[in-house]
Amino acid sequence: MNRTTATVAAATFAAALLLVSCSTTTRAAPTHQPVFAPTAMPSLDGAEAGAAEFVRFTQEKGTPEQQAAVTGHVTGVARSAAQGDHRNSYIATDYPQPEEATMRAITDAYLAWAGPADDAAMLVLYTAAGTVMGGVELAALRSPAPASSSR
After folding, report:
1. What is the pTM assigned to this prediction?
2. Strand 132-137, strand 120-126: pairing
3. Which residues contact 79 (CB under 8 A, 6 or more apart)?
4. 74, 91 contact by CB (below 8 A)
5. Cα 128 off chain centre by
6. Residue 2 binned pLDDT confidence (cut-offs 50, 70, 90)
7. φ, ψ dihedrals at 55, nearest 5°
8. Which of 28, 101, 122, 132 could form a disulfide with 35 if both were Cys (CB 3.0 to 4.6 A apart)?
9. Residue 113 and residue 82: Cα distance in Å, rounded?
């Protein structure tokens, strides 16, 4: 597959993933500015250590699908510097281009690992070549906080 075809395929897949992850809810729209993903995995300190922690968590607490998608495939997990009221999170993998189910399993594992207090607005997944394989607006996937949690 040539570079143009790969880029178009990745962009199409990312758009499809965003559409699939959208749902009709009564939740208010996020208040942060639009989020844009870097076209290549950022070189951030601690990405390997973040990957080791993420893989360890997934091995201990993840579903079998999450364990299969993450273990042996995630090579880096990093977070951007604060961008106003949010951050982005990035996951590097050794996949050339995984199936949608694999990407969803990685995303679900990330949400479990990061927890509800995580301020990441977007999760961006990268291929083995370092190109974007997909990006997900995390607010649409997070469960709303229970009403009893406010004090």
Report:
1. 0.67
2. antiparallel
3. 44, 50, 87, 88, 89, 90, 120
4. yes
5. 15
6. low
7. -65, -45
8. 122
9. 19
pLDDT at res. 122 = 86
In the block, residue with structure tokens 């370092």: 130
Give me the residue label for tokens 């906080």: 145
Cα-based distances in Å from 45 to 49, 51, 135: 9, 12, 21
3-state secondary structure of 65: helix
- 18's tokens: 């965003």
Q: CA 40, 90, 132, 83: dihedral to nearest 10 degrees?
A: -70
Give the C-alpha separation, 39 to 132, whole Å: 6
- In this structure, what token pair is assigned to residue 100? 């949608």
Tokens of 35: 């989020």
